[in-house]
């Protein structure tokens, strides 16, 4: 198999959609079966295939694995002279099949073919000064998707010889478009091969020609943030890079991550470096953890969080006194709740408190269970907590019980149902049956779907 046929096969494997077969083309792998008659059969003379088409063998094209095996067995393939298209296709084949290190030499060969276009573009752009580089359509370069890079570079050079600076810059820039794609992929390949410094230089090489390149802007900024944590100037450059990425690509799938990393880079700069920033976060978490004694934190002791799934506005305290209604928290307190950092330590403590509440419910210790749920609700107003709080108030016979129960059942009946399973598992079969009976009466549609009558009959 020649390098040309390998490149053709490579391009076919890399295509996003399969290319339609020409009219009258025999189905791949059809052996000697004649093709079906076609109304367009006259469009292609019998026995002929399009120019550049691999020889017909009646066999399916090779898989990527088979093709790579053939390439690996070709002595001296890397050193042979290649066009940009062939070198880049071979590099992409290795890269997209998980062999980034093997892709790099071919990417470098492809980039070498674009060297003349790069130098010409940078020179002509400098001559333009503040003048904008026109598009290739505006410059009437006449290129198509099939025009080789070397040919586009030659056209740009002719424009430069004639003194057409803007036209030369436009045509050279068009010639560099596929080259920049290869350079970005090489940067990624270097990063995957643990060469962060090489990747950084490759990203910067792309940005020299295309300052708004999405891959290069994001890649360079992320690398600076990850590898230059004590270099405040580099971190500042990373933050600026993320800002430039967001300005140029606001709807990118990576926009949210770029925004977050940009904020973090700014925090690291203000802290004086990555080590100091990390130390401050550890200390901050330590302080927060020391303040998370939920049983004694006055902020937690105010009752269920206002606005949590409809639990807003306090009614009168129920029989027996105490602030067992759902009080309205101040705006400042609500804002403080929202700003609490959700650390693993916090989440674990909240889960432990919920479990304690369920254990207390199974033993009929509703007053103590209420205290536990009141501590958790401000920070975790989910279905499980609402169900536990609602059943607690029902058990205590509080005036707010029906309203809170309605909120819990209306928002997540499955969580209420699961609380019954938890009570039963903890030995409170009577409580579980009572809960399911009330749930069946409150949500008949859910009861039918969840077969609650079966549970009640057991």
Plain-language structure description:
This protein has 458 residues and is mostly helical. It has three domains: 157 residues, no CATH class; 74 residues; 106 residues, Serine Threonine Protein Phosphatase 5, Tetratricopeptide repeat. 63% of the residues lie in helices and 0% in strands. The chain contains 22 helices and no strands. The protein is elongated and about 95 Å long. The N and C termini lie far apart (73 Å). The N terminus is likely disordered.
Layout of secondary structure:
Layout: H1 3-14, H2 64-72, H3 84-96, H4 100-113, H5 115-128, H6 136-139, H7 149-161, H8 165-192, H9 196-209, H10 214-227, H11 232-248, H12 255-271, H13 274-290, H14 331-339, H15 344-362, H16 366-376, H17 383-396, H18 401-411, H19 413-425, H20 429-442, H21 444-450, H22 452-457
Helix pairs in contact: 1-3, 3-4, 3-8, 4-8, 5-7, 5-8, 7-8, 8-9, 9-10, 10-11, 11-12, 12-13, 15-16, 15-17, 15-19, 16-17, 17-18, 17-19, 18-19, 19-20, 20-21
Please give a quick description of this structure:
This protein has 458 residues and is mostly helical. It is 63% helix and 0% strand.
Share of helical residues: 55-70%
The multimeric state of the shown protein is: single chain
Order of helices and strands: HHHHHHHHHHHHHHHHHHHHHH
Give the overall form: elongated
- Tell me the distance between the termini: 73 Å
